[in-house]
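Quick start: read one record
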Amino acid sequence: MKLELISPGKTKSAYLHQGVEDFRQRLSHYVAIKISLLKEKKGKKSVELQKLAEGRQILARRTKSSLLVALDLSGIQLSSRELAVKISKWEISGYPTVSFLIGGPSGLSGEVLKKADCIISLSKMTFTHEMARLILLEQLYRAYTIKIGSQYHK
């Protein structure tokens, strides 16, 4: 199974970019991971039109046969151990790719949320989409270390 993370906008903060790269490299020891950062849709459009445009861009970029996991406040909250179990189930189910979808500053469009196979919330708190990337990658790394019994997860 492969993982892909798709999100609009570049990681502007150097410390977040460094963290994302660090956990991408760590995670790559356990699973193939691809990060696709798309052009953020800005302009004079309404927030809903921007979300719709970003959502279509996200859906167009995903691997077609992938399981879609959207990150949204409305989603279920999982412990790190529960995420590890969920990843194991996805592997057993034979999904070739799991696509994690993170929206831009205004979140994901309703269209993306409807097409998602699973919606996960990282927290009841709100994070920037840049921080969400880092938190997701750290949690994915933690889930894989839980699966192998590493001491990373204490």
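Strands lie at 2-8, 32-38, 67-76, 97-101, 118-120.
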